[in-house]
From TrEMBL:
Residue ranges that the Swiss-Prot or TrEMBL entry lists as coiled coil: none
TM regions (residue ranges): none
InterPro entries (UniProt xref): AF2212/PG0164-like_sf (IPR037079), DUF1905 (IPR015018)
Matches recorded under SUPFAM superfamilies: AF2212/PG0164-like
Pfam families hit by this protein: DUF1905, OmdA
The protein's name in its UniProt record: YdeI/OmpD-associated family protein
Length: 162
């Protein structure tokens, strides 16, 4: 994958934060928070089992510790849940956020204000839309999500806005 040395390459137990809607995660104590980033998150790339992670953020969990959130789509793909052991290999990710060409083309086919609105969002806000689109299982769903994103951008709405 790369000549860069992995910052983590071992097995971890998947855990779940208590309560309804609690996140499933792997605690990664070997990696320290990055004080230069918001909330101390650290951007990584790598693998959880055979699932490739790109431009993924380790999130803070208190006391200077970080965790790797494991979304439902990833858990379904690797067929693992809280209580299971996963193999995690991570590298620091210093690559710039790349907007997929097909999404860029769709945005550029709209009035310029749509693309400008998208570009005005933070990298994380842009990535939330892109992840949502590409988490779709079927092409029709992906297309309808692109249309919905464009309609929301027309109103200046970020992915998490109501």
């Amino acid at each position: 994958m790369t000549s860069q040395k992995a910052i983590v390459n071992k097995e971890y137990l998947l855990k779940k934060f208590p309560g309804k809607g609690g996140w499933t995660y792997a605690e990664i104590p070997e990696i320290s928070q990055d004080k230069s980033n918001p909330f101390g998150w650290v951007r990584v790339r790598g693998f959880i089992d055979d699932y490739e992670l790109k431009q993924y953020k380790l999130m803070p969990m208190g006391e200077g510790k970080l965790f790797l959130p494991v979304k439902a789509a990833i858990r379904k793909n690797i067929k693992k849940e809280a209580g299971d052991i996963v193999s995690i290999q991570l590298f620091l990710d210093e690559t710039p956020f790349l907007l997929p060409e097909e999404i860029k083309e769709c945005l550029l086919n709209e009035p310029p204000s749509i693309y400008e609105t998208f570009l005005s969002f933070t990298e994380g806000e842009q990535k939330a839309y892109i992840d949502w689109i590409y988490d779709a299982k079927m092409e029709d769903t992906k297309v309808s999500r692109i249309v919905e994103m464009i309609n929301r951008l027309e109103k200046g709405l970020k992915y998490y806005d109501k």
